[in-house]
Amino acid sequence: MTRQRIEAAIAVKQAILADQDLLDRLQAATEACVATFRRGGKVLFCGNGGSAADAQHLAAELSGRFYLDRPPLFAEAMHVNTSFLTAVANDYGYDHAFSRLTTAMGRPGDVLFLLSTSGNSRNVLAAAVAGKKAGCTLIAMTGRSGGELGELVDILINIPSRDTPRIQEGHMLLGHILCEDVERHLFGPSSQA
């Protein structure tokens, strides 16, 4: 079973590598982030469960550092304020957990990453609608189909798999590449090969 899971993970990564259109969309996402940071904007992330953990991880790579010792970038995962999250879920319903914060934080030219392996998470879809109204560039990280989210966003990074763990592994692979490339464009060459 272990060998099969590793082979499945490798197969997804090979499918990503063979999909030039997907790699071009990743490059477009990188360029959107670079442009936003150069204008003094911010990059916001949202997702549920494992996707929340991935959103927080990627935000930390940008706001802290990746390879380079450099100034911090304004990147934040919108679920980290548990008092806000639980109050909104209690008072308005969990479907509004990210959309209210997107409305409060999102500004024209900001980037909003929406992580959902299915592309159909109600609260992430609501955040996309709020982000569009706020003038954010919307980037979705999903599984193969893109779900409903794929129809709402400016850039779709859809991992060629229907298996949630493989999709999330793909999100982290491409997310790390994006973070490294953003850092390199803004602050100089990476110290790693």
UniProtKB/TrEMBL annotation:
The keyword Isomerase applies. This is Phosphoheptose isomerase. Substrate binds at residues 48-50, 61, 90-91, 116-118, 121, 168. Transmembrane segments: none annotated. One of its GO terms (cellular component) is cytoplasm. Keywords: Carbohydrate metabolism, Cytoplasm, Isomerase, Metal-binding, Zinc. It comes from Neolewinella marina. It catalyses: 2 D-sedoheptulose 7-phosphate = D-glycero-alpha-D-manno-heptose 7-phosphate + D-glycero-beta-D-manno-heptose 7-phosphate. Zn(2+) binds at residues 57, 61, 168, 176. Coiled coil: none annotated.
